[in-house]
Amino acid sequence: MSQDSKSSTRREPNIALESEIFRRCFTEVEPKFDPAKASRDILNTLFAWVWKDQRLNALQVDFDKGFFLYGDLGRGKTMSMKALRKYMNSVRHRYDMRDDYRLGAWWKTASELSNIYAADGQPALIQYAADDVNIVIDEFGREPIPANNYGTKMNVLQFLLQLRYDHRLTSVTHITTNISPDSLVPLYGDYVADRCKEIFNFIEFKGESLR
């Protein structure tokens, strides 16, 4: 069956039911999650991104870009991304949406990626920049800069983001971080900071710590 045929026969989601499933993913990731303390605009926007539903797109994000979730410690950035990833995998399976390249993602911390380079060099990073690989990079900005592979030093996340920019139309990158967008230039340079505008939707997590 062609992709066009599959799309035409795919059942339409029950948005009210899917919204409940989406929120359930948060409590499965964090049993103490209290939706009353979370930003409704952020929750609605993350949910809208999955379905490309402008009616719920409170923050007016670009559905073809990934998320750059930033804010102070304990604001729920990593929890939200884990819940979103869990929900994406659920949707992809239940609705057979394997043709939507945005759904699903690998998960690596920035430090893990730096350690991969330190142990095995630049070739070991290429799989994380492939044009059909989505990835969540958690704790962005907390990795050692530069990483050292037997005397060869490199800014690993700068290198990866340069490569992933070239594949931004066929793969999605998500980031959770405690650093603000203003820190991108001093940490990763003008080139990467400028291209991040084309890769990410920037969403700040404000308020009191949820921990």
Explain how this protein is built:
There is one protein chain. With 211 residues, the chain is α/β, with parallel strands linked by helices. The protein is built from seven helices and seven strands, in the order αααβαβαβββαβαβ. It has a five-stranded parallel beta sheet. Helix 2 (15-29) packs across helix 4 and helix 6 (156-166) packs parallel to helix 7. The N and C termini lie far apart (48 Å).
Kindly list the characteristics that best describe this protein.
alpha/beta, Rossmann fold, two-stranded antiparallel sheet, 7 helices, 7 strands
Write the CATH homologous superfamily of the domain at 62-205. P-loop containing nucleotide triphosphate hydrolases
Q: How would you sum up the global shape?
A: globular
Rg from alpha-carbon coordinates:
18 Å
Order of strands in the sheet with most strands: 2-3-6-1-7
The CA-CA distance between the termini, in Å, is 48 Å
CATH architecture tag of the domain at 62-205: 3-Layer(aba) Sandwich
Calculate the mean pLDDT score and round it: 92
| CATH top level label of the domain at 62-205 | Alpha Beta
SSE topology sketch:
Blueprint lengths: L2 H7 L5 H15 L10 H12 L14 E6 L5 H18 L11 E4 H11 L14 E6 L6 E3 L2 E3 L1 H11 L6 E5 L6 H16 E6 L6
Parallel strand pairs: 1-6, 1-7, 2-3, 3-6
Antiparallel strand pairs: 4-5
Helix pairs in contact: 2-4, 6-7
